[in-house]
Amino acid sequence: MSLAETVQFLRSYLDDPSTVGAVAPSSRRLAKALVQPFAARTGASRVLELGAGTGRVTRCIASLMGPDDHLDVCEIKEDLADALETNVLSEAGCRRARVDGRIRLLRCPAQDIHDSQGYDYIISGLPFTAFDPVLLDAVMSSVRRNLRPGGVFSYFEYVGLRKLNRTLSLGSGRQRIRSVSGVLDGHISRHQFRRETVLFNLPPAYARHWRFA
Ligand SMILES: C[S@@+](CC[C@H](N)C(=O)[O-])C[C@H]1O[C@@H](n2cnc3c(N)ncnc32)[C@H](O)[C@@H]1O
């Protein structure tokens, strides 16, 4: 990870902590854990990445793409989307696919995506633990609307962060995290088919994989 990438990410966090939701980009190990279902695909696939940040997971997805795969990269923050455009998406591994329209950058909120073709894999870096329940609900609706039947939704959360939040927050903050946690736990018990613990990340994280149907 370059120093410039780390500084850009940290600056973005300080500018808007509840949207960015992390002080450092994901490690290579976490990125690999998140893309594992896509890496094991058997045919041409459409992939959507939500909350790409400085592109740590984007690079990993792009490195696995074949000529018939398609990737849409969604990032809400203008400064991070600009950095994705000038850095990751302009690199040799992405440039050709970008020109051909097989990699697209979506500068919009994840909850606003309506894709008529749908995706086989949705891979998220969104900070659900920092969201309020209404936003979480809107994002989950977008995931379900845009995921093809049998598709896989992958995301990460930091180990113990929800529990720590529930213990330390007070009043409306505690109510918010309880509600968000209840929604996530409901999905986890119904839809999760795989969870990987990634210790080589700051902080350690779970990569979770769900299938809705
Ligand atoms: C925790 S960072 C993850 C960045 C990167 N995927 C990684 O793993 O290093 C969360 C990212 O989600 C973006 N984000 C937050 N809310 C969003 C939303 N509603 N729609 C799209 N992107 C969003 C933030 O701007 C930030 O870049």
Descriptive terms for the model:
alpha/beta, single chain, 213 residues, 21% strand, Rossmann fold, seven-stranded mixed sheet, binds S-adenosylmethionine
Q: How many beta-strand runs?
A: 7
CATH topology: Rossmann fold
CATH architecture: 3-Layer(aba) Sandwich
Whole-number radius of gyration? 16 Å
| Count of runs of 4 or more consecutive helical residues | 10
Assign the CATH superfamily: Vaccinia Virus protein VP39
Termini gap: 37 Å
Question: How many structural units, i.e. domains?
Answer: 1
**Could you say which small molecules are bound to this protein?**
S-adenosylmethionine
- Give unreliable regions as ranges: none
What does this protein structure show overall?
With 213 residues, the chain is of the alpha/beta class. It has a single domain (26-210), classed as 3-Layer(aba) Sandwich (Rossmann fold). It has ten helices and seven strands. The chain has helices spanning 3-15, 17-20, 28-34, 36-39, 56-64, 78-86, 92-99, 133-146, 161-168, 171-191, and strands spanning 46-50, 70-74, 103-106, 119-124, 147-158, 192-198, 205-210. Strands 3-2-1-4-5-7-6 form a seven-stranded mixed sheet. Helix 5 (56-64) links the parallel strand 1 (46-50) and strand 2. S-adenosylmethionine is lined by residues 19-22, 25-26, 50-53, 56-57, 74-77, 80, 109-111, 125-127.
Could you give a quick summary of the protein structure above?
By secondary structure, the protein is of the alpha/beta class. It has one domain (26-210): Rossmann fold.
